[in-house]
Amino acid sequence: MSGLILSSNWCCIAIVSSLLIGLHTTRAECSDGWTRFHDSCYFFGHHGMTFLESTRFCTHYNAHLVIIEDDVENKFIASVLEQLNSNHHWIGLTDEIVEGTWKWYSTYKVANYTDWYPGQPNDGGSANCANIYSVAPYAYQWVDDVCTYTYRPICERGLNTENVIVGK
Question: Going from the N-terminus, what domains does the chain have, and what CATH number goes with each?
Fold first, then answer.
């Protein structure tokens, strides 16, 4: 009888071990080329494109232009941009629909958090899209700009999002 109990215990240990190993291997990750921060994956584009092209580019990779929700996320993005030594990057913020009402392009929600450089946004109807500008004195703060200018996109998507190529 004790042999049966011992055998049962080993069986249970083997099942629990298998489950734990399975949980470990399904840990949330980002695809190659994407950078993880908290519950999102970020891709910092390598080529300049317009704001609209940038939104399409991100959508193409099952993502959206970055939505920056707080100072912690903003500082993370600034630290990556500093390492990349790149000047302008589009973020997903625009006031194209209603002048002066800055909304996230992918959700149409008004931005609760912003990090505008002092005096920004400043170009009225001609500059309706936001980007992070690194050159002094801007120091990785946000500026409004003309949406047809070409800057690199910052894309964001959730963890474990497949790198599905949309439209192919």
Answer: 30-158 (3.10.100.10)
